[in-house]
# Entry
Amino acid sequence: MASIGSKLRRERKGRSKRRLLQLWTNVKRSEAYHGLSVYGRCFLFELLDRYTGCNNGMIALGVRDAADALNCGQATAYRAMREVDDSRLASPMTLGVWRGKKATEWRLAFYRCNKTGELPVLNWPAREFRSRSAKVPLEKHKPSLSSAPEAQKPKSSISENSLSSAGEAHIDIYHSHNGLDAPPGVRPALTPAAELRALAALVSESGE
# Structure
């Protein structure tokens, strides 16, 4: 029967095959980290993936391996390495040799260096959040129809020109020619024969 100690050792050995990539929150929220591009951040995580806890300062990662890990060209991988070096989050300790087939060795600044014994950098200035208040442009209101200087008059089937022309009132549209349907206060329009008969009637009345 296996002892409890042997079981714990087997469990620890099984868990050692699976590790976590740990990045401190103050480093993640720092100005240096947010200044990196997407490839620069991915390169930093590739260094964390190769960090075992006892090889800081000796993390081997060259341009060709970085390009293969980031799935990009060697020029893009080289720019990512320069970004990480400029941010001081990681720095190369030993430059790689092309002919000697030796990759560049890196050191993560926020962990203790296992090669020189240098202490980790704990103070990372936080990123400054800049408020971006969107200003809504003011739109000019178009003048409404009701604010027009002159109100629109309803259209009529009979125009004003058909009712009056040259100062003469046309009242024939209101009554018949015999003057029977003339409205009150309006003198009916008489024909020449009717005017002669009316004149004769006035003369005969005056003679009587």
Notes: Residues 192-207 form the longest helix (16 residues). The two ends are 163 Å apart (CA to CA). Strands lie at 59-60, 90-94, 105-108, 164-165, 168-169.
